[in-house]
Amino acid sequence: MLTKLSLAFGSRQILQDIIDKYPDRKFRLMQASVHSNKLALFDFSNETTIFKSPVKLTVLGEKLNSNYNGILYYQSFQVDNDHQEVLYNTLNKIVNNSTSLINGQAFLEVDSKAESTTLVLLSAANDFDDLMAWKKSDSFKQLDSFTRRDPNNTYYDEVYRSEM
Predict the structure, then answer these.
(1) Reported CATH class of domain 4-162
(2) pTM for the whole thing?
(3) For the chain, which residues make up each domain, given as ranges?
(4) What kind and span of H or E run contains 140?
């Protein structure tokens, strides 16, 4: 079972050097779909991070396909204290009741004091069409109130496609 995950951003050469230096790690080199020059290296090895400036995440719940093939949809939520428990329960429910459109999902918490209230939903889908279909589903609609940017919510999302 996955308990921790980390990722780092950088140039293709720097990230490829890391992959070459640590061949036993379960890396996924991903390219942001919106920002085509933005690369991220996800480490699914469940080991202490080897990145110098990582985004470290603690897994709170997961049902991920071990291949992590296709695309990854990264959603980051930061809500005020009044809505934190509702968001937590909603993300937990989505992960535990994953649809067939999604290969799997992980519900995570950013491992940083400065961002300790940030929760992340990482979803793996076969392709962009499956992701778009899921975004129209009742399961995804549970997140509507958390995906609006307002004084109580900070929301960020990014679609990553595989480079490996």
Answers:
(1) alpha beta
(2) 0.90
(3) 4-162
(4) helix 138-141
